[in-house]
Specification:
Length: 361
């Protein structure tokens, strides 16, 4: 069989790229083994204002509309409901932060993103906010695991998803693209997340994977309309539970849950909630984010083999950033002159930064 594209990986990146390619009339085959996928652990929080300096997320004015458009389209096409708009209640971490909020609030660039400010204890007694808090508007969360399950079912139904481990050694490059398991492809797009370190064509790039752990507690938040945020986040779930995350570690790149991670999440939760006793933990998960040296995705073509393409490096911003870039890469693969901008893989060719990274696996 001949296909236009082989997509390797069915996390959020591979799933959404495959969707965009298919809706453009391209023929696609997907290969994914369905394990060690950070997307299926992720809380999928869309947060437009982040960090101690309260800065807008990278390209958020473009990313948010694209994300909402695609996720609503998927809900209509697949018959689900996965995107929940939510305000984010950012709990101040110091007495200086309200001054930063005031400065940002007066900036036209932040109009529509910053909401009300609250005095300590104004929201409710259960929230620990000695310096008060404020609202971040236009946020939300995407039920990524459930969305990926629906896309997986659709791709299986159409016979385009093979649930198996991709063997890089069996991919043969040729003048027409590449062949794999008897099929011919015009291009191969790798969406492997942190497993890119085992990819013989792209493992030289400066990825900096970061492990994160998340807990699910058997207790509802006092304010179900908000995602709480103060270093860690607390996400309300519709079944009366809540999820708390996330840790961040570059030291142990695996999906093994740890007592250290559990302790760190408990401490983070205590900084936000005045609960005398922590509720029971009903789930403890770990995943590895595909982060990069400059915290931007890496998208583009192999410098020597143009039929090999990379779509990776979305880190903790997969739910927010992937839709826009999936559409742009799909257009580029279809022959349009699309500028990949800051995400272009070519920025790393001959970069001295590469010397700081270990030898590929």
């Amino acid at each position: 069989m001949r296909y236009d594209h082989l997509v390797v990986g069915q996390g959020i990146a591979g799933s959404l790229l495959a969707w965009e390619l298919l809706r453009r009339g391209r023929s696609v085959r997907i290969v994914d083994r369905g394990v060690d996928c950070a997307s299926r652990v992720s809380a999928g929080i869309l947060n437009p204002v982040t960090g101690k300096r309260l800065v807008k997320s990278w390209l958020v004015d473009e990313l948010l509309p694209a994300a909402h458009h695609l996720y609503r389209e998927l809900e209509t096409e697949l018959g689900g409901s996965w995107l929940t708009p939510r305000r984010i209640l950012r709990v101040y971490q110091s007495a200086d932060e309200p001054k930063r909020w005031e400065k940002r609030r007066l900036s036209p660039a932040y109009e529509g993103y910053l909401g009300r400010q609250f005095a300590p204890g104004e929201i409710c007694d259960e929230i620990h906010d000695p310096w008060g808090s404020f609202e971040i508007l236009r946020g939300g969360n995407l039920a990524i695991a459930e969305l990926l399950e629906a896309l997986q079912a659709r791709y299986l139904e159409r016979g385009i998803l093979r649930q198996e481990t991709f063997d890089h050694g069996r991919l043969k490059l040729n003048a027409e693209g590449a062949s794999y398991e008897g099929d011919q492809f015009g291009s191969v797009v790798f969406c492997e997340g942190f497993q890119v370190r085992r990819n013989p064509w792209f493992n030289w790039l400066p990825f900096a994977p970061a492990k994160g752990e998340i807990l699910t507690f058997a207790r509802a938040l006092p304010e179900q309309d908000y995602v709480l945020n103060r270093q860690k986040w607390v996400l309300p779930l519709p079944d009366g539970r809540c999820r708390v995350g996330s840790t961040w570690s570059h030291d142990h790149i695996d999906t093994v849950i740890t007592s250290q991670g559990r302790t760190g999440l408990f401490e983070g939760m205590r900084k936000m909630l005045n609960w005398e006793e922590m509720p029971a933990v009903v789930r403890h998960e770990a995943g590895v984010r595909p982060c990069t040296h400059d915290r931007l995705p890496i998208i583009g073509f192999h410098p020597e083999h143009a039929q090999l393409v990379l779509f990776n490096g979305f880190g903790s911003k997969g739910a927010l950033a992937t839709p826009l870039w999936a559409a742009r890469l799909a257009d580029r693969l279809g022959g349009q002159a699309v500028d990949l901008g800051e995400t272009d893989l070519s920025r790393w060719i001959d970069s001295p930064i590469l010397q700081q990274y270990p030898e590929p696996l």
